[in-house]
């Protein structure tokens, strides 16, 4: 039986950029199920990042409702959203967003320190294949390694959902695959619901379900009968 | 400039404080000395002063013949007790004769209202303005004076000012008290009659020619007056009013030498910080400009313009504030010192120098950053700067800091990653603390001085001075007055003490063997018993004469038999007021080959009988001056408290400007540089409070490091000020209280916290989404 983790209805987002009113999201309905890998696919400006930010509690919808399990995120206060991110969400960004003054282990420990049921930072880094790079600073790591540290940091607190915004966007294909493998491995071992944003269509083959974005809307949705192993993906 | 305006303003304010302190200190200095010079010139203030017991007027012609003397005026000067209706305390009047008719030639009076006493009038007087104001006396008012034992009712015909009494300090007082000390001018025949000085004088003042040799004039004048009880001639530098004004001017110049550099150093540092940040933000533009062919000098000039703009802002604010405040200070001085007018000198030269020095400091501060921008190669400039690399500050498996949270480790690594910036921020904060230490310490120092002077040294409630020294039996008359619990005599003799070419004219104070009221304390503040022979000098006088314990000093007693003797210096003692020389009273009388004589009496009074005491004092013919030490102390404390409050307010303001300038700028730059990091933390679920703590903790640590440095620098600054404030009249003891350190640190901590909190508000408005979308 599938359990719905996220459920968004009629979500729109409008913001002003200078003199222009931008409609980033024009009414999106979405449900994400427990334990699945969902790929949100679309060109830049199609509204997928906006949706992810709303799901992650970084931004608020202009209209519409969004629920995470029994939490209503629609009208949550800033404080409640912070608490929600702290307890339930793991983020992975295109530019890693590691803390440059902390080592790989410390970057992970940063999050485990404020979580109620974390795994050891060493274990989290082991999961992404970085057990040998624990005491390196971000400036001493390659891009792929930095992104895997970011994934370890995101999963170390055992989040309910892992939200990844263009996790391979800044990486070449070979390194990108390593990152995707790490995400897949985490999903299989921990069962973490994972949403991956990308404009790279090759990635959709590793997903359970794929949402196609265009012009602020979800144009189509489909489920993959057979999922591809990330190692088979190439772009 | 637009996005940096708040930071630029913070820098400009620090610079303005430097410019303003320069203008205030030097501006008031020039104004005050200009005013004094003009006043002296217009009223023909004398160059040389001398007193005698009774010299025939015929000697005036002789004095006029002295080489270098331009003008001579003889006069009668006597102190007498006054009785003013409605004022319970006896006041001391300082009576000075006017010529039988017309005006004086020297030390002319500045008439404020009324007319000078009529020629030959016996009862008409002119009084000093401050005294008249203190008692509400007007033209036509009367007051009673006991002139040589005879009470006389006097009528006021004029209210005047005199250059001789710009600072009018009563005998035995610490601070002018206009209620208890007044200067009164009478026609000469009236005073001569009252004091049996017909055809004679007891004071002479001279104005010298430009080429006169001061020492020679003193010598010749002393020779003439020797036969008539001359007490030794002295120049302006020993004239009380002039000397006090000099001490004040010296303080002003010390302040303007020490304070502005502190601000200029901070300005230079802040300019460096702001520019470095701006240039790092504009790397790409700089690269572009260089790529299309701009020369390094053109880039440098571009940033120098910003420095110029900030400087103009700082100098402009500094000019306005400095002009306003130094004008205010000059007005305050004019009131405290009795000037008839004030000349406010807004010397263009001063402004030019202040502007030039400040701009130079700013340019100096900008040099490194601007040179860095000019040297950027276009290719590198157009790439984002390399990510900062960090190092672990511990190695191996020992992790002494493993118990610290990651946030704390971030703070520590960040501080160590930019050691120069951290150090300069710490230095800036510590200068704010130093400034406060150097100002607040004076509260403790003055209290200490009061304690030493009034509670340990001069413990009498009151003291009498006789018009002339009297036989020792006079003590009994005083001891018998109602309300006198203890009476202790003293005798003083004016002498020129010399050691080689170092010489000083001082009063040697003879004290009785069993002194309990007015004591002599050694350097450790323990009472000293005066030896049966030999001198005890205060530290300041000993330094002046270059004399140490065990040396011999040559004494030339002025007045009386003009005895000369070589006297051993048996001890050096502590005194913060005046240049003191002490001797056993009996030994002093013996040395002067005279029977036991006393000049005055120190007393302990029974407060319950003060009315009876004051009533009895008014009937005492021989008493000319009464000093009330406790009343004087109260007046002193009142004046000091007023000044200290203003001073503390000003310094707290200045220290806050520095702390704000440094911390606000640092915090803004930090915030800008770390916005991405802070936003990442917020995304990871750290609360606003936790993220702000990261920012604030860094400043807390830097401030903590700044505290001991600030204390040390403040100690040095205070020491420099104490040295700068030293004068013959008083010295500030160098006493540092723990509370001074504590308050200084506390005030700056509050200023730092407030500045950081202003920046902290920006954490709330962090745009998480857009920060994360962009690459560094």
Provide a short characterization of the protein structure:
The complex is a heterodimer of chains A (235) and B (776). Chain A contains 6 helices and 10 strands; from the N terminus they run E-E-E-H-E-E-H-E-H-H-H-E-H-E-E-E.
Structure description:
The complex is a heterodimer of chains A (235) and B (776). By secondary structure, chain A is an alpha/beta fold. Chain A has a single domain, classed as P-loop containing nucleotide triphosphate hydrolases (Rossmann fold), CATH 3.40.50. Chain A has six helices and ten strands, in the order βββαββαβαααβαβββ. In chain A, the strands form two sheets. A six-stranded mixed sheet of chain A has the order 6-7-8-3-9-10, sandwiched between helices. A four-stranded antiparallel sheet of chain A has the order 2-1-4-5, with helices on one face. In chain A, strand 7, helix 6 and strand 8 form a beta-alpha-beta unit. The model of chain A has no long low-confidence stretch (mean pLDDT 89). In chain B, strand 7 and strand 8 form a beta hairpin. The mean pLDDT of chain B is 86. Chain B is α+β, with helices and mostly antiparallel strands. Chain B folds into four domains: 196 residues, no CATH class; 111 residues; 198 residues, no CATH class; 122 residues, Barwin-like endoglucanases (Beta Barrel). In chain B, the strands form three sheets. Chain B has a six-stranded mixed β-barrel with strand order 3-4-9-6-8-7. A six-stranded mixed beta barrel of chain B has the order 13-14-18-15-17-16. Chain B is elongated.
């Amino acid at each position: 039986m599938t359990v719905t983790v996220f459920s968004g209805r009629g979500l729109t987002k409008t913001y002003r950029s200078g003199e222009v009113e931008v409609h980033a999201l024009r009414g999106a309905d979405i449900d994400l199920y427990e334990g699945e890998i969902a790929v949100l696919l679309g060109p830049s400006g199609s509204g997928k990042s906006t949706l992810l930010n709303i799901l992650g509690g970084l931004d608020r919808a202009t209209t519409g409702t969004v629920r995470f399990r029994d939490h209503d995120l629609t009208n949550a206060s800033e404080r409640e959203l912070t608490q929600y991110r702290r307890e339930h969400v793991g983020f992975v960004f295109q530019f890693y967003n590691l803390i440059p003054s902390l080592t790989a282990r410390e970057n992970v420990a940063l999050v485990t320190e404020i979580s109620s049921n974390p795994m050891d930072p060493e274990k989290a880094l082991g999961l992404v294949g970085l057990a040998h790079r624990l005491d390196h600073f971000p400036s001493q790591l390659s891009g792929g390694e930095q992104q895997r540290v970011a994934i370890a940091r995101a999963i170390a607190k055992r989040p309910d959902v892992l939200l990844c915004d263009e996790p391979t966007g800044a990486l070449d294909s070979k390194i990108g695959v390593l990152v995707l493998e790490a995400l897949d491995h985490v999903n299989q071992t921990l069962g973490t619901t994972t949403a991956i944003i990308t404009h790279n269509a090759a990635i959709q083959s590793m997903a359970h379900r794929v949402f196609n974005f265009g012009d602020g809307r979800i144009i189509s949705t489909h489920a993959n009968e057979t999922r591809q192993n990330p190692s088979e993906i190439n772009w | 400039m637009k996005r940096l305006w708040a930071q630029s303003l913070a820098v400009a304010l620090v610079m303005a404080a430097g410019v303003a302190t320069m203008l205030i200190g030097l501006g008031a200095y020039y104004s005050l000395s200009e005013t004094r010079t003009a006043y002296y010139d217009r009223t023909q203030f004398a160059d040389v002063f001398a007193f005698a017991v009774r010299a025939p007027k015929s000697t005036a012609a002789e004095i006029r013949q002295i080489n270098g003397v331009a003008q001579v005026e003889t006069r009668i000067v006597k102190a007498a007790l006054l009785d003013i209706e409605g004022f319970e305390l006896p006041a001391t009047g300082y009576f000075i004769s006017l010529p039988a008719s017309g005006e004086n030639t020297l030390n002319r009076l500045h008439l404020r209202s009324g007319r000078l006493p009529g020629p030959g009038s016996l009862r008409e007087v002119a009084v000093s303005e401050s005294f008249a104001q203190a008692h509400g006396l007007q033209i036509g008012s009367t007051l009673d004076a006991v002139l040589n034992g005879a009470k006389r009712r006097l009528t006021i015909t004029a209210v005047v000012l005199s250059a001789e009494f710009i600072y009018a300090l009563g005998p035995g007082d610490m601070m002018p008290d206009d209620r208890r000390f007044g200067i009164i001018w009478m026609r000469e025949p009236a005073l001569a009659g009252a004091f049996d000085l017909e055809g004679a004088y007891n004071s002479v003042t001279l104005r010298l020619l430009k080429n006169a040799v001061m020492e020679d004039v003193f010598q010749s004048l002393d020779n003439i007056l020797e036969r008539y009880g001359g007490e030794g001639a002295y120049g302006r530098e020993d004239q009380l009013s002039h000397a006090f004004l000099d001490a004040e001017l010296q303080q002003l110049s010390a302040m303007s030498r020490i304070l502005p550099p502190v601000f200029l150093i901070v300005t230079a540092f802040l300019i460096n910080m702001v520019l470095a940040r701006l240039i790092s933000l504009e790397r790409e533009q700089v690269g572009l400009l260089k790529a299309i062919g701009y020369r390094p000098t053109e880039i440098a000039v571009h940033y120098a313009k910003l420095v110029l703009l900030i400087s103009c802002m700082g100098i402009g604010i500094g000019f306005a504030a400095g002009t306003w405040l130094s004008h205010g200070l000059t007005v305050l001085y004019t009131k405290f010192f009795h000037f008839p007018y004030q000349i406010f000198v807004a010397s263009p030269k001063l402004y030019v120098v202040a502007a030039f020095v400040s701009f130079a400091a700013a340019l100096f501060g900008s040099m490194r950053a601007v040179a860095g921008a000019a040297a950027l190669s276009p290719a590198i400039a157009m790439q984002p700067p390399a990510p900062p690399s960090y190092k672990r500050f511990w190695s191996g498996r020992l992790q002494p800091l493993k118990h610290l949270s990651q946030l704390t480790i971030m703070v520590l690594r960040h501080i160590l990653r930019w050691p120069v910036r951290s150090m300069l921020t710490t230095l800036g904060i510590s200068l704010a603390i130093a400034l406060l230490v150097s100002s607040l310490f004076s509260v403790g120092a003055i209290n200490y001085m009061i304690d030493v002077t009034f509670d340990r040294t001069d413990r009498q409630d009151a003291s009498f001075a006789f018009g002339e020294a009297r036989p020792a039996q006079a003590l009994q008359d005083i001891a018998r007055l109602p309300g006198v619990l203890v009476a202790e005599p003293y005798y003083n003799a004016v002498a020129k003490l010399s050691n080689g070419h170092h010489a000083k004219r001082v009063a040697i104070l003879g004290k009785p063997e069993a002194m309990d009221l007015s004591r002599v304390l050694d350097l450790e503040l323990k009472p000293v018993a005066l030896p049966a022979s030999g001198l005890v000098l205060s530290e300041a006088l000993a330094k002046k004469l270059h004399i140490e314990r065990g040396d011999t000093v040559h004494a030339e007693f002025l007045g009386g038999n003009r005895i000369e003797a070589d006297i051993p210096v048996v001890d050096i003692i502590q005194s913060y007021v005046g240049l003191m020389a002490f001797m056993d009273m009996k030994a002093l009388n013996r040395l002067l080959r005279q029977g036991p004589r006393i000049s005055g009496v120190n007393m302990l009074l029974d407060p319950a009988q003060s009315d009876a005491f004051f009533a009895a004092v008014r009937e005492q013919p021989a008493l000319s001056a009464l000093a009330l030490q406790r009343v004087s102390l109260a007046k002193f404390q009142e004046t000091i408290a007023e000044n200290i409050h203003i001073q503390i307010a000003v310094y707290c303001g200045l220290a806050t400007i520095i702390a704000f300038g440094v911390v606000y700028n640092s915090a803004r730059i930090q915030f800008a540089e770390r916005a991405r990091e802070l936003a990442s933390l917020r995304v990871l679920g750290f609360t606003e409070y936790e993220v702000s703590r990261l920012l604030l903790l860094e400043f807390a640590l830097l401030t903590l490091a700044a505290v001991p440095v600030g204390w040390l620098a403040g100690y040095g600054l205070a020491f420099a000020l104490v040295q700068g404030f030293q004068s013959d009249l008083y010295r500030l003891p160098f006493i540092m209280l723990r509370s001074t350190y504590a308050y200084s640190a506390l005030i700056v901590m509050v200023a730092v916290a407030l500045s950081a909190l202003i920046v902290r508000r920006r954490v709330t408005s962090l745009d998480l989404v857009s920060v994360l979308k962009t690459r560094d």
